[in-house]
Structure formats: structure tokens, C-alpha cells
Specification:
The chain is mainly α. It contains 24 helices and 6 strands. The chain folds into 3 domains: about 10-370, no CATH class; about 375-420; about 430-555, Transcription Regulator spoIIAA (2-Layer Sandwich). The radius of gyration is 25 Å and the shape is globular. The two termini are about 35 Å apart.
Length: about 550
């Protein structure tokens, strides 16, 4: 222990991983790193082009920031680099303040992320409620897709508007300039991506369409726009190091955008790390991860790189490809560097239509569209928070959307907490009813473990369920959640309970909920929560819940799974 804290809680995962590193792990990391490096190449270029900067800036960011995030981060398998979440805000900064304004903004965001990591604010990201996260994720996906319409259809638009409505108007006005060849190439690439995503998941479709689409366009001399025709190719060699001039006069002007980049980086990196934890069984260190993200975003502009964060799709690809430690992420950055130094001249033949189809797929995957039907089952207040965040993201900007969503969520939080306060007379009937909920009068049988949730289970409190996950290997067959003292729940709390139910079911265990109060019971009924655990596993009292637990034990036996 150092200063009362476990040293492993602050050390980068790369150092922890090297303690028991082996040739077998390196081999797995090498294969995963090669795979992710190839997947990251088209994505890095596509994000850069969509952001209004040369494609090499995306590659530079993926190399520099990707290496630093893996080397210093708090996740074993996180892959860092430019992501779609930044496209909209970065393009807006570039259009208004140029590339130097972007570098200044990225440096400011990096300093903020370092401060968040050092001061322990990495856990504060959990206070962003689920409807806000889904709302601006949906909105960003729509915005990314809208920026790709020009290149997907080969439209003759000289300068694409920086606003969603303006872009759509331009597409409608210039749709007569559609190129059949470009549209066919982009449509074919998108079809291949869909096929691989649905039926051939072990092979990254982005790599396939990148090589096939480029080869087809080059060999057949298709009249489509390429990286060479728009940017003159990609420079070969190491990323150029230079200290960009800091626009001090723009710092206050760029502060809202820098806060947006920092918040998006923090949210996406920690969401990605949580996804990685679920896939691997590891547990990331949020503050160490944010510190690494901050350092990466401070260093990336020194090499003309874009802002970076944890990339969920590339992280999942890394894990599916066998990546075990942060070494895989560092190898992915080295692979990109080798490609840049050796094969950069060949990249000039890549059609922009192919990159547009890849970004269409990215937009669809990041949109979390399956969450929308679930949110629509919630309260009107939750739906309003999601809808307002979504509409402001699309029609205003991300900064306004997040601010408005957080204000609405905070007001909703206050309303829910205050509505749980009650004053009531203790009557003989109340005392009699209490026997069915008493832990003293209802013995817990062997093979059952009971946990209780006390107080409002709203956004910010959901990580407390980790007390159950930490015991997953030793839990008995039946887990019961006693909800009699859970005074309120929201969409984030429901989402956390659904995740717990799914994890317990996957481990061969049963979850039983008992004695929910009025507000939680109504929201669970409206959201059809019973579909996750079965209606018979939602009981009105502790006594009824224990009766159901005994039935489950009789069906499956009392031994641990």
C-alpha cells in the first residue's frame, strides 16, 4: 500500500501485464495487433477526411495516441485512436478556426482529461444518465452519416455545409449530379460490409472492402474520386514533429469545444473500457485511463494528429482477435507506422466512396438504435431527456445538447429523489404487512444469497452493483435482490439491472427480485423488465421471493454452478 492506496490501482495496465508476460501472450497480442492495425487504417483516414483535414492526420493520431493510450492506460485491451464521436465537433472547429485552432483545442482537452484522471474524476462520468448518452450517440451517428452523402453518391458539391440542415439541402439540390459509378461502388462496398458484419464476423469487413474496392477502382480505371484526386496522396515517412503555435487569443472562445472533446473522450473511452471488461472479465482503472487519454491528446497535436479516445469497435476487434494485454494496442500503432513508411504511396488509390461506406457502417454501429425502443417504454420525462438531447445534437451542436441533457437529467433527479419522501402513520396493518418483508422472520435457505438496494438507484449509483459481480465465481444458484428500500429507479438503473440479469443468466444462475416499491414497480412494468428474468421471478415480498427461490433450487439442485 502507498499512501493508503493499492499501487496497482494507479499503475498502467501495461506494467501490470508485463509481470506475467509470456511468449504465448505475445503471439496472441501480435496477431491481434496486426488485425486491429489493418482495421484502424481505413477508419483513421475516413475520420480525418470527414473532419475536414488530410487523411494522414487521422493516421498520425492513431499511431501516436493509440500507442500512448495502450502504454499508459488503465485497460488491458482498450484500443485508442480517432473515433466518429469527434467528427462533428472537429469539423466545426476546423471550418471556423483552422487546423491551428484544432490543435489548441485538442491540447486544452488533453489537459482537462489529465486533470480528471489525477484528481479522481474518472468515476464522475457515471453521473451522465443513460438517456443523455443514447441521445447524443444517436445524434452523432446521424450527423456522421449526413457528412458522407456527398462522397457516397459522388455529388458535385464544392464545399459541404457545416450544419445538418444545410447539408441535407445541398444533397437535395445537387442530387441530379449523382454519379452512377460512385454510387454503385459505394453501395457494393456497403453490402459487403453488412454481409461480413452479420455472417462472417471473424473477418473485419473494413479490410476486405478497402482492398477490393481500391483494386477494382484502380484496375478498371473507374471515374471515381480518390485520396489522390482530392488530397494528392499521403506523405511517406514518420509523423512530422512540430510544436504548433498556441492560439492564446482563442482559448476562451474554444473552451466550450475543448470541454466537449474532453467529455466525449472521457465518456467514450470509459464506455469502451466497460465493454472490454465484460468481454474479458478484467476490470479497468478509470482514472488511469483518463490520465492516458489526456497525455495522448496533448502529444497527438505535436505530430499533427487528431483528438483520440477509446474506440469500442476496434477494442472489440482486438479482443475477438485474441488480444490479451496492452502490447496488442502498441503493436497496432506500430503496424500503422510501418504501413505509413512503406505503403503510403499505394493509399492514394483508395476511393472516397469506399471510405464513405465504411463510415456509414460506423455510424450505424455506434448509433445504439436498439436502445430507442427501450427508452420509449420509460417515463415521459426520460423520453423527453433523450429526445431533446438527440434533437439538439443534430440541429444545434454537441455542447448545447450535453448541457441541456444534463440540466434536464439533474432536474429529473431532484424530482425523483424528493418524490420518494413520505410521511405516514404506523398502523397495525402496516406492522402486520411488514412480516412478509422481514429478514428476521423469513430464513434464507442454503443456495440463495440476498442482496438489498437501499435508497434511490439512479444514474451515478449503478456501479454499486459491482459488489455482486466481484463475487460471481462463488455465488450460489439463486440471487435475490430485495428492493423494499429502493425508493426510486431511472433508465440508467434499469439498464444496470438488465445487464446484471443477463450476466447472471449467462453464468447459469437465476435472479429473483422482490418487494419493489411503487415507482420502481411501475417503471419496471412499463419497460417490460420481466422479459429479462421472467415474470415469475418478480415477487411482491421477501417471503414470496424466497418461496420462488426454493422452487428454482428444487428444479436445478442446490449446488453452485
Amino acid at each position: 500500500m502507498i499512501g493508503g492506496r493499492n499501487l496497482d490501482a494507479v499503475l498502467p495496465k501495461s506494467i501490470i501485464a508485463l509481470r506475467n508476460y509470456s511468449v504465448k501472450k505475445f503471439t496472441a497480442d501480435l496477431v491481434a495487433g496486426l488485425t486491429v492495425g489493418l482495421v484502424a487504417l481505413p477508419l483513421a483516414m475516413a475520420f480525418a477526411i470527414s473532419s475536414g483535414v488530410p487523411p494522414q492526420d487521422g493516421i498520425y493520431g492513431a499511431i501516436v495516441a493509440g500507442f500512448i493510450i495502450s502504454a499508459l492506460g488503465g485497460s488491458m485491451t482498450q484500443i485508442g485512436g480517432p473515433t466518429g464521436a469527434f467528427v462533428v465537433v472537429v469539423s466545426g472547429i476546423v471550418q471556423q478556426y483552422g487546423i491551428q485552432g484544432l490543435f489548441t483545442c485538442t491540447l486544452m482537452a488533453g489537459v482537462m482529461l489529465v486533470a480528471m484522471g489525477v484528481t479522481g474524476l474518472g468515476t464522475a462520468v457515471k453521473f451522465i444518465p443513460r438517456p443523455v448518452v443514447v441521445g447524443f450517440t444517436n445524434g452523432i451517428a446521424v450527423l456522421i452519416a449526413s457528412t458522407q452523402l456527398k462522397d457516397f453518391f459522388g455529388l458535385e458539391i464544392e464545399t459541404v455545409s457545416g450544419e445538418f440542415v444545410g447539408r441535407i439541402e445541398q444533397v437535395i439540390q445537387h442530387f441530379g449530379s449523382l454519379s452512377p459509378t460512385t454510387t454503385a461502388l459505394a453501395g457494393g462496398a456497403l453490402a459487403v460490409l453488412i454481409v461480413f458484419a452479420r455472417w462472417i464476423k471473424r473477418v473485419p469487413g473494413a479490410i476486405v472492402v478497402l482492398f477490393l474496392g481500391t483494386a477494382l477502382a484502380w484496375l478498371a480505371h473507374l471515374p471515381v474520386e480518390t485520396i489522390e484526386s482530392r488530397f494528392g496522396g499521403i506523405p511517406q515517412g514518420l509523423p512530422p514533429f512540430q510544436i504548433p503555435p498556441i492560439r492564446a487569443d482563442l482559448m476562451m472562445t474554444l473552451l466550450p469545444a475543448a470541454i466537449t472533446i474532453a467529455m466525449l473522450g472521457a465518456i467514450e473511452s470509459l464506455l469502451s473500457a466497460v465493454v472490454a471488461d465484460r468481454m474479458t472479465g478484467d476490470k479497468h482503472q478509470p482514472n488511469t485511463e483518463l490520465f492516458a487519454q489526456g497525455v495522448a491528446n496533448i502529444v497527438s497535436p505535436l505530430f499533427s494528429g487528431l483528438p483520440a479516445t477509446g474506440a469500442i469497435a476496434r477494442t472489440a476487434t482486438n479482443i475477438r482477435s485474441g488480444g490479451k494485454t496492452p502490447v496488442a494496442g502498441m503493436i497496432h500503432a506500430v503496424v500503422l507506422l510501418i504501413i505509413l513508411m512503406v505503403a503510403a504511396p499505394m493509399a492514394k488509390h483508395i476511393p472516397l466512396a469506399v471510405l464513405a461506406s465504411i463510415l456509414f457502417m460506423v455510424a450505424y454501429n455506434m448509433g445504439e438504435w436498439s436502445e430507442i425502443p427501450e427508452i420509449l417504454k420509460l417515463s415521459k420525462a426520460d423520453i423527453a431527456v433523450w429526445l431533446i438531447t438527440f434533437l439538439l445534437t443534430v440541429f444545434a451542436d454537441l455542447t448545447v445538447a450535453v448541457q441541456a441533457g444534463m440540466i434536464l437529467a439533474a432536474l429529473l433527479y431532484i424530482r425523483r429523489v424528493t418524490s420518494t419522501s413520505t410521511v405516514a402513520e404506523v398502523t397495525p396493518e402496516y406492522i402486520e404487512e411488514g412480516f412478509a418483508h422481514s429478514l428476521q422472520t423469513n430464513p434464507i435457505p442454503e443456495g440463495v444469497k440476498v442482496f438489498r438496494i437501499h435508497g434511490p438507484f439512479l444514474f451515478g449509483a449503478t456501479e454499486k452493483l459491482s459488489v455482486i459481480d466481484e463475487q460471481m465465481d462463488t455465488l450460489p444458484k439463486v440471487i435475490m435482490l430485495r428492493l423494499r428500500n429502493m425508493t426510486a429507479i431511472d433508465a440508467t438503473g434499469l439498464h444496470a439491472l438488465e445487464g446484471l440479469a443477463d450476466r447472471l443468466r449467462a453464468s447459469g444462475r437465476h435472479l429473483v427480485l422482490c418487494a419493489p416499491r411503487s415507482q420502481p414497480a411501475k417503471l419496471m412494468e412499463k419497460s417490460e423488465f420481466h422479459q429479462h428474468i421472467g415474470e415469475e421471478n418478480m415477487q411482491p415480498s421477501l417471503a414470496a421471493g424466497l418461496k420462488r427461490a426454493r422452487e428454482l433450487l428444487e428444479q436445478s439442485g442446490p449446488d453452485n454452478p
